[in-house]
Amino acid sequence: MALLPLVLFLPAVIAFFVDPDVVWGEYLGVFFHLSILFLVPRLDAAPWARAAGYGWVALDVLAGILMINDVEHDTAWAVRLGGHVLAGVWIVAASLVSRAWPVRVVGVVTGTWLAAYSFVGTVLPESFLRPAGILILVWFALLAVFHRATGEGPVATGSAAVGTA
After folding, report:
1. Among 111, 130, 135, which Cα is nearest to 53's?
2. How confident is the model over 70-91, as a mean pLDDT?
């Protein structure tokens, strides 16, 4: 479940460290964010948190396409940072309900870092966002391990869930 985002995001993170202006990194970033569409519904989270996850995907895909099409960096970057606030909300909320404490700890730190940077991104260089990229890779890896190991999955909803224990 979290392996596809992990595999797609790893080269983008490497590009972010080696050559942040490389255009192919944006293409990978778009595909990475689209892969999150498969992850959001599979993690336990409140509907508002899932909506934040989907909002993150929409805004970061938009930001990637803006960058690919040479829209002014400041405009695309502002869109990306707005998406990162939503990403942080989803990551923290989904992590807090995980049964695996490593997922909870890394998820809260990751989501908080990602969202918090959005509020100081105009005064701190982009390099301060790099640890969040590494942390999200760790979070995906932990999800891949612990989601299967604990049998975590979406909470049953609707009429089928009524009266079940």
Report:
1. 111
2. 96
pTM value?
Answer: 0.83
Residue positions counted in the chain: 165
Quick one: angle between helices 130-150 and 3-18, nearest 10?
Answer: 170
70, amino acid identity? D
- Beta carbons within 8 Å of 164's beta carbon, 6+ residues apart: 156
Give the whole-angstrom CA distance, residue 54 versus residue 41.
9
Which amino acid belongs to residue 25? G
Q: State both tokens at 2.
A: 């979290």
Residue 154 has pLDDT above 70, yes or no: no
* CB count in 10 Å sphere of residue 23: 11
| CA 16 centroid distance within chain | 16
Token duo for residue 43: 């993690």
Q: In this predicted model, what pLDDT tens digit does every residue of 106-136 receive, in sequence order?
A: 999 999 999 999 999 989 998 899 899 899 9
Mean pLDDT value across residues 150-155: 49
Task: Please count the other Cβ atoms lying within 10 Å of the Cβ belonging to residue 83.
Answer: 24
8-54 pLDDT per residue, tens = 776 777 777 777 677 777 888 898 899 999 999 999 999 999 999 99
